[in-house]
Amino acid sequence: MKPRRAAAPSRKRAPDAFPDPHHDHDACVGRALADADAICARRGERLTTLRRRVLELVWGSHQPVGAYALLERMREHGRSPAPPTVYRALDFLRAQGLVHRIESLNAFVGCDSPERPHAVQFMICRGCRTAVELHDEGIARAIGAAAGAAGFAVQSRVVELAGLCRECAALSDPASGASPAPA
Ligand SMILES: [Zn+2]
Ligand SMILES: [Zn+2]
Ligand SMILES: [Zn+2]
């Protein structure tokens, strides 16, 4: 089967930011770990072997993974850290902005731009379970303004959108999913 060619990304955040199923995911993992090394070094934080390993496992795919599944994977790889150790590692990674928690799935996914804190909107595909970040400041501002007008102090602005990515939409309805992206 010939991999479908994705439209050339002309902007950093194309509307179809979902990873191509045939992309080089090892490159994603390598970049995430290198970013984490650099960020922790710059902040004087210790990316211990365990924390780095947990981050690597969270980055095992673009699908959010739960803490229990992470523990299982660590066991498969011959390590059986106590669950609280792994939870603490996840807390550290979240505090450093290296992973996000997806509340609706009670699961974690690697952040693709962890350099600074950001408002995030997740697009979560119900077909392939892939989660992709949007960083739309307009949405974040609108939430802040609307909540502020209601006298509500927002502490978390993570928005979770459930739906279908282009690939999965095409699979479930070939007629609607086959239209090419505008150039
Ligand atoms: Zn990838
Ligand atoms: Zn992020
Ligand atoms: Zn999908």
Describe the protein's architecture and organization.
With 183 residues, this protein is an alpha+beta fold. The protein folds into two domains: 88 residues, Winged helix-like DNA-binding domain superfamily/Winged helix DNA-binding domain (Arc Repressor Mutant, subunit A); 66 residues, Ferric-uptake regulator, C-terminal dimerisarion domain (Dna Ligase, domain 1). The chain is built from seven helices and five strands. Strands 4-3-5 form a three-stranded mixed β-sheet, with no helix packed on it. Strands 1-2 form a two-stranded antiparallel sheet. Strand 1 and strand 2 form a beta hairpin. The longest helix has 19 residues. The two termini are 24 Å apart. About 6% of the residues have low confidence. One zinc ion binds next to helix 6.
Précis, in short:
The chain is an alpha+beta fold and 183 residues long.
User: Class of the largest domain, according to the CATH hierarchy?
Assistant: Mainly Alpha
Major beta sheet, specifics? 3 strands, mixed
Q: What is the residue-averaged pLDDT?
A: 87
- Shape by Cα distribution: globular
Each distinct ligand: zinc ion
Write the layout of secondary structure elements.
Blueprint: H1 25-43, H2 49-58, H3 67-76, H4 83-95, E1 99-102, E2 107-110, E3 121-125, E4 131-134, H5 137-149, E5 159-163, H6 166-172, H7 174-177
Parallel strand pairs: 3-5
Antiparallel strand pairs: 1-2, 3-4
Helix pairs in contact: 2-4, 3-4
The structure holds zinc ion (ZN) (3 copies).
What key phrases describe this protein's structure?
Arc Repressor Mutant, subunit A; two-stranded antiparallel ribbon; 2 domains; 183 residues; binds zinc ion; 7 helices; globular
